Structures are given as C-alpha cells and as structure tokens.
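Project standup — Tuesday

K.O.: blocked on the structure for the chain from last sprint. Re-posting the sequence here as requested.
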Amino acid sequence: MLRFLLVLQALLVLPLTAAGVLENLPGPKNPTPLDKFILEGMKEVKVPGLAALILKEGKIFWAGYYGWANIEEKRPVTQDTLFQLASISKTVTACMIMQQVEQDKLNLDADINTYLPFKVRNPKYADQPITLRQLLCHTSGIRDNWKVLEDQWVKNGDFKLPLSQSLPAYLIEEGEFFSAKKSFYSWAPGTNNQYCNVAVALAAHVAEVKLKTAFENLCAQGIFKPLKMEGTGFLLASVDAKKVAMPYSYRKKSGSFKALGHHGYIDYPAGTLRASAPHLARFLMMFMGNGRLGEVRVLKPQTVEVMKAIQYPKLDKKQGISWYYTRMGGKQMIGHDGGDPGVTTQMLCQPEAGTGIIILMNGEPKKGSFEKNLPLRLLDHIN
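H.V.: unblocked you, prediction finished:
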C-alpha cells in the first residue's frame, strides 16, 4: 500500500505533457467557428492560454478567453486574468511621459542631463546630447547588453534596485554594469535606429526624477486610475499575483510545458506591465479616441497626433513615439507587439475606423500559420 501511494505521489508531480494539457482546453461551452479556429491553433503552436478582444466604436465588440492561465493550479484564462504585456508596456510608459510633456514638465528635445542627477553620454560622442524623443524612438544610441540584462533577471519577484541605482550602474563609466562597447552603439544619437529597452527605462526615470514620484505611481495616477484599470501594474508587488498568467515554454524533447516564473528586470518600464485584456482595451480605446475614453481625457488630441506621427522618416518610416505602423489584411494599423520568455502579445488598431484587436498569450507560438492568421481572422470578424 505504501509503495502504491509513493508511486501515485510521484505521478502527480510529473510535468503534464503538452498533449494532455492541450487536449481539453477550457473555452466557450458552445464554440463558434472562430472559437474552434483559436482552440485548434493553440494546440498547433503549443500555447496553453490566450485572451483575444475585438474593439469597435469605443466598445469591446467581441471577447474570447481560452486555455490555462496556470496549468499546475488548473486556473483557466478569464476576463480577470493578468498577462505580462512585454513590449506593449512601452506604449503606456510613453503615454505617461507625454502627459508630462503636455504640462511643460518635460521637453522631448531637451538634453536628458538637464533632468538627471547623473550624466549620460555615449563615450564616443561626449559632446552630443541624448533626448527623450530619441529614447522613446530607439535612436539614442543606448544599447541592450543582453548578457548583463539577463544575468540580472530576478525570478518570481521584482528587480530589487530602483531605477535611480540600476541605470547609473549600466550607463555611466564607473558603473558596475557599464561597457563602452556594449552599453552604447558606435553611432551618434539621432543618426541611426536600434530597438532598445534600457533607453525606454531611462525615459521613465527622467520623468520620476523631474516629478519626484516613482514611475509606477505616475502611471497609476495618470493612466490606470482615470481609465479604471484597477489591478494593473508594472511590479508584481502592485498586482494580485494569483490572477497573473504563468509564462510557459514548450519543451519539444519532453513534450511538456515548463513554468518560467515571473521575472523582474533592470529595464522593467519597457516590459513588465501586467494587465487584463479588458483593461488593456480601455487604454487602447483611449488612444483610438484621440486621448479620451468616455468622459475621461488622458491625453490631448494633438498629443496623440504627435505620438502617431513618424518621428525619424529617414531612419524608420514605421515608427511614431513608441507606436509602430504595420500593414495587415491590406489595412494600415498602428500599435505594438511584445515578446518575452513565455509571453507573446499584440495590440493593433485603426483609429480612423474605430477598430482594434488585442491578443495576449502565456506561451511562445511554435512554427505554424496560427500567429500570423489569428489577427486577420479577428479583423475579418469585425465585418
């Protein structure tokens, strides 16, 4: 009897195979053709959980919640599930900064060293200033040193140091993580374009220094509270951890899913925002509404137009201020996507048509057509 119990206990702690997890994914009781397409696609690309929304004329037109937010806890994805948004976070960070620009508290084209207590310069171009516009548009010349960034990841917690300590350590010559070759590119600010997470984190820190308020509090006061995005936050400590979808990696060799945990980063303003799909929809509908959702105004219409405008047409003809243009199904759309270990996200809209889509996954789609075709199916569903 004892041997039987020990064997049973061992079986219970074995990782669930992907086939077992994906065979009976939670979903609608009476699935439509779109629901069936999504559920079959999740099986194909090995994604355990997914939330998708269609927005139309300032409202959620359609919503779908599928699979597992947490496999081990058998917690399904619901409208209350919080997903890590990865680089979609940058659009929220940029929104907060543009609120300060509106109030003349920050200047997009001023030298950031006029705000910071430490001096940031590319050592190769010590006489050339770096601006907020450059930080938000990835033209500053600051570089993501992935060895340092990944070495400093915190598993199942927030990064321990505030931006006021971690960023100088990365960006100034006497800093612990500084590298003349790997902290900066070899080109002058404003002359090239390379995607950079640390640059966006630095922009967030400029705001908190000027306003003397923590970055996440600025976002809560200026965006989350007025838009009624309760429970949304950049830090694990600021959200209900029991509602956060666990990021998963599919392991082909074992045919199973591995829970990756919730990471904290040096550059967290660029990627660790956690929000539910309906709450992210409120943010996107605000942007689509020229800065207004219902009776609440978060940004001035002219500010939204600035964010949508191509900032460096000679360097990147698709990039506004933390928003990107793309073509999908023959339509020009603006938004942002994101990817982190165990996380895949997409947020796109056509403001002039009043339509948008949101897709949040707690997995990394494997090879297949699903990731490409899902946005197209959602757009087709609007008509």
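K.O.: great, moving the ticket to review. The radius of gyration is 21 Å. The chain has twelve helices and 15 strands.
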